[in-house]
């Protein structure tokens, strides 16, 4: 394992993103057949009635463990901002802090959104919650948070990150834009439509955090590969220069 702090920051963020998908499984995953007709795309889990039905048979232990895992692992993904800060080319230095602030906002908001799922999940497990006055009172709270984070906030943030990497503004290969969270979520959503039911539900409820983890891991290893390539190139140039010097003597 490399001791480079930039690589380690990205690797750590990636591992935390993968672990965070465990929080999604504990809090939201359910393969009950009655869900097959209402959960088709990732946005479906942001709908209050559908989310309530999805979490109705969760246990308190599952929700509690999922909540702890989410609050630990989702914000930890912000560590990957250190890698991105360091790979943005000097020419675009003015983008460094806006990217850091953007990622901070996205990970804090992601943790907040998961808290709202835990909150609704705890009430959904109570008999008679669906359709009750309490459910009607909670619905605007849940859907406002989910809409701000999952719809209105994530789309512009994902587009910005995609353009940042695709435009060559970083020292990482341009192809890394293909594993940015927004694009991974879009592809996964389309593929999930043709997957077996249990696989589809698994993908829909985990893709947000899983895509973040895969993105950070890809960046970390692309960064390390680039550093190794650069070191090898410099070593070869030094050897060639030494040979030329020796032959001229």
CA distance, first residue to last residue = 42 Å
Low-pLDDT ranges? none
How much of the sequence lies in strands comes to under 5%
Radius of gyration: 22 Å
Q: What is the tally of helical segments?
A: 8
Describe this structure in words.
The protein is an all-alpha fold. It has eight helices and no strands. The protein has helices spanning 5-28, 48-55, 60-76, 80-87, 96-124, 133-166, 181-192, 197-248. Helix 1 (5-28) runs antiparallel to helix 3 and helix 3 runs antiparallel to helix 5 (96-124). The radius of gyration is 22 Å and the shape is elongated. The chain starts with a helix and ends with a helix. The model has no long low-confidence stretch (mean pLDDT 87).
Give the key terms.
single chain; 249 residues; mainly alpha; 8 helices; 74% helix
List strands and helices in order, with pairings.
Blueprint: H1 5-28, H2 48-55, H3 60-76, H4 80-87, H5 96-124, H6 133-166, H7 181-192, H8 197-248
Helix pairs in contact: 1-3, 1-4, 1-8, 2-5, 3-5, 4-5, 5-6, 7-8
Q: TL;DR?
A:
This protein is an all-alpha fold and 249 residues long. It is 74% helix and 0% strand.
